[in-house]
Design goal:
alpha/beta, cytoskeleton, dynein, repeat, Leu-rich_rpt, Leu-rich_rpt_4, single chain
Length: 201
Amino acid sequence: MAKTTCAKALQNWEQDHPGEQPSEAEDIRLIFQNPPLDKLDPPVLNTLAKVKRLSLSSNAIEKMVNLPGLRQIEILSLSRNNIKKIAGLEEIGQTLKELWLSYNYIERLDGLQPCVKLHTLYIGNNRIKVWDEVDKLKDLPEIANVLFVGNPIYENQKDDPKLLVLKRINTLKNVDGTVVDDSLMEKVKALGDGVPTTTVK
């Protein structure tokens, strides 16, 4: 089946936003294209020099790529695609604040290290099976809001999985939509020293 290209998706956007130029826009949403987008096209997307929020959710994109032209990007949404690996963030890590990746096929949290401003990561309903992957978020100095619901690591836990996330990263402000307050942190302390480390089979 034919796929929509990024160039065509931007043409569709221009038709829906008469008088506006994509290169000048701060908020561009190319969600749920019909037929869907299946790949990111750097020469096209790099023209979006002023975009702060770029949404490409609900398509069929398989790979993340470097997009150095997005010099002001703060929110990147790639939820509900076919992505298996976090990549291509080296050039936008200095400005990116929110990354939405829920409903993909991601198993590992490698590739986030360049994102020194990232405070929100939505990565629910992926394929994260190893609790040690959560530890990789400790390298993100601004991370405060995460969503892990729907990943295999949450299955068959006798304790609330949110508490297990907080046990590993106690600087978070919100986990799975729940604000972290003193009562929640008291529950974390009550868990003791043990944290799950095994791979979910």
